Amino acid sequence: MTETETNVYDVVVLGAGPVGENVADRTRAAGLTTAVVESELVGGECSYWACMPSKALLRPVIARADARRLPGLREAVQGPLDTAAVLARRNWFTGDWTDDGQVEWIKSIGADLHRGHGRLTGPRTVTVGDKVLTARHAVVVATGTRAALPGLPGLSEVGPWTSREATSARSAPGRLVVVGGGVVATEMATAWQALGSQVTLLVRGKGLLDRMEPFAGELVAAALTEAGADVRTGTSVASVSRTDGVVVVVTDTGERIEADEILFAVGRAPRTDDIGLETVGLTPGSWLDVDDSLRVTGTDWLYGVGDVNHRALLTHQGKYQARIAGAAIAARAAGTDLPQSDPWSAHAATADHECVPQVVFTDPEAAAVGLSLAEAEAAGHRVRAVDVDMSSVAGAGLYAEGYNGRARMVVDLEREILLGVTFVGPGVGELIHSATVAVVGQVPVARLWHAVPSYPTLSEVWLRLLEALRDS
Asked: Which helix (H) or strand (E) holds 389?
């Protein structure tokens, strides 16, 4: 067998994060030979610098907050968190930033791992160092995103934190400025404030979590303030510098803020700038435009899966896309013609459009799926929003003394189904899948009355929401 022949595969996957891994798993399960190319750690951003380390940092924070809301327990947890122990547990979840276990998993499914920077060098061709990998059926770009930084003069000399530094830091800075109001900003502000940093959160917009219902950001901002963080909305950074180790931030109003570190959490950019897109007629650094089978527009062999297509920048949604793409690649390799007008099929990522769930692991948690009220109205739906105070549920009172939270469902009045649901409050992250099933399944409101929530649980909020809709 020649060297060239050993480098021919049915599928070549660029990127071994959760998305690339799932594509490889599905194509291998279909019997297709598959190569995976990775320039960093197998497991990707989620495993080492995002989902897993951030939630490992946040879990003790949330557990302590919940314990402090329970008489008989709060007295036992009044002291500070053991920051060193929290960071050590975080390190364990990242495997101390080694990927041996995930490399073994790649091998276990029968895929070949090629380490190095992979670049497209023409249709169905990927070059990794001195190796050329040729794909018979598909090349999948699953390279994800990187943190976007603003164009402030001298920023690189400051050495700012991005999400990577915020989730992998070896100690808590005494003073931390966080710039941004989205998920990364609010979660990392929550974590590091509780781990001993004095956090100042600078938000350019009017509030936090602006892609959710307004009350979500309001409740999270109030809780951060109560925890000791300084939350400033309507505030932009005009300049930033570092002198003798001290970060100096000047706001658009001329105010000066000093800190030990500064975290910018102001957006993401696709990692497509140096993967050879120009060799196949695409623009380097661009988001990839794809159809619902995740195939790049204008090609019959290139797929863009996960964050690179900008449909839903969430790990769970990227893994969903990976399952869809893997099934579509396998079907096309077998000669099946896939109609593009077949929503909710095994080969269409229909849920990307209006059924995306998300949990923000702040205190309180914020969880949402589908459309917000503003989004539904902007889309032309005739809707009604129904709100319920979470404290009206018996399970909330049992969960925590002084439980503070809110729920909303957005009802399509013509079809009598739910377009969106939002929960804010302690422990609500575990409620969101029930809402996702209702939204994705387009379950009629009349049928939801027969989905009886167990008493006394937080899930009884569903009954309160239906009652509020009935009585409105």
From this structure: strand 383-389
